[in-house]
Amino acid sequence: MAGNKTFTMIKPDAYEAGNSGAIIKMIEEAGFKINAAKLTKLTAENAGAFYAVHKERPFYGDLVKYMSSGPIIAMILEKDNAVEDFRKLIGATNPAEAAEGTIRKMFAKSIEANAVHGSDSDENAAIEGSFFFAQTERF
Ligand code: CMP
Known about the structure:
The chain is of the alpha+beta class. The protein has a single domain (5-137), classed as Alpha-Beta Plaits (2-Layer Sandwich), CATH 3.30.70.141. 40% of the residues lie in helices and 17% in strands. Helix 3 crosses helix 4. The longest helix is centred in the last third of the chain and has 11 residues, at 122-132. It is globular, with a radius of gyration of 14 Å. Residues 54, 59, 63, 93, 111-112, 114, 117 line the site of adenosine-3',5'-cyclic-monophosphate (CMP).
């Protein structure tokens, strides 16, 4: 059975552009409840650890630099079928391929500065949520 939690970050480009409120509104209107939320800034070391699965990819160095370049908003979101439904809401990684009406289509600037992150599995949602939040910070 699909889990009911996913993890997201509003990335530095979207935060800097003042799109955090509009993105959170879309998330809530799509039926997700915010279970935990935090405005923070990743160090390069933490960004590297968070994206360690991409270590061998050619974009890893730039990704780490970008993700530690400014504030992000980390959130755990709750809804039935959370991981899949959230990935539909945000659209493809590359905004040029993202469907109309998706968060990335509306707010992403490039394949790297793509406005939001969304977990790709229930297992990663749990790992990524725990990366940012203690049990006591969750509702
Ligand atoms: P995200 O869903 O957070 O997961 C990995 C991130 O790497 C991705 O979003 C983008 O921000 C970034 N990225 C940069 N270049 C690429 C690429 N060519 N393919 C996939 N992800 C990329």
